[in-house]
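Q: For a teaching handout, I want to show students what a protein-ligand complex looks like in token form. Below are the inputs, and the small molecule is glutathione. Please produce the holo structure.
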Amino acid sequence: MLELYNALQSTCSQKVRLCLWEKGIDYVDRPVSLKDAENLSPAYLALNPNGVVPTLVHDGTPIVDSSVIVEYLDEVFPDTGLTPADPKQRAAMRAWMRFIEEVPTVAIRYPSFNQVLVKGFRKLAPETFAAFAAENPLRKDFYLRMGQDGFSEADMRASLQRLRKTLERMDAALAEGPWLVGHTLTLADLCVVPTLDRMEDLGLAPMWDDLPRVADWFARIKARPSYAKTYPEGARLSVAYGEPDPPTAFALPGTDGRGSSQ
Ligand SMILES: N[C@@H](CCC(=O)N[C@@H](CS)C(=O)NCC(=O)O)C(=O)O
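A: Here is the structure, written as tokens, with glutathione included.
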């Protein structure tokens, strides 16, 4: 039996749901409420000591980390393979996956928190917030840097630049396309989808207006049945938490001022 402990709006959970739906694998949905800090409960920490979602439990064995999980799924259920057979292409896919983990997956947290999620933390008593941050195995420093007022403008600028760099790299790779690694859809494509979906939800889509290959790639992703299944009603921050604040008071990278409040 496959059980997926995940949160509907979590981008890392969405990577795994996309992979499961793309491969047509049945799983038992185990929702974890991040709002209620269920990810920090002793029962969840016993499955995933990092205190983050997702966790896949396969016949009783927990597998953690979204990129590890999608590779595991593709190994254990090789039908509808999402990993190239050619070792050089496989290396290219893995290099994309490392880049996605290190750059856009980290960068997207800054606008997500500043535009939406920080509002929940503003309401907490300072000692409650400090205790929440201290309890968080992986993200203590992240939460302390954010504080209850959100990340600084310098942090926001840097994260948006990293997102723009990702889009530019995608655009260059897609010139050879139609997918990030050549002719077939791979895990690399699926792993970056939640970043673009979140950017769109936060009003950051103008950042790829001048990159038509990225827009075309995203339209093809959205046309796949796996996309609608991964994003049911309520899977977006704007629906679950209410309308996001405007992205920034400065021009979004790549827009020359379009799409920003300046
Ligand atoms: N490297 C991990 C990161 C997972 C992660 O950061 N998950 C976020 C949601 S997207 C989370 O659980 N955050 C909990 C928190 O910030 O308290 C993975 O890819 O699975």
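A: Two things your students might notice: The chain has two domains: 2-76, 87-240. The pocket of glutathione is lined by residues 10-12, 34, 39, 52-54, 65-67, 136, 139 (CB under 6 Å).
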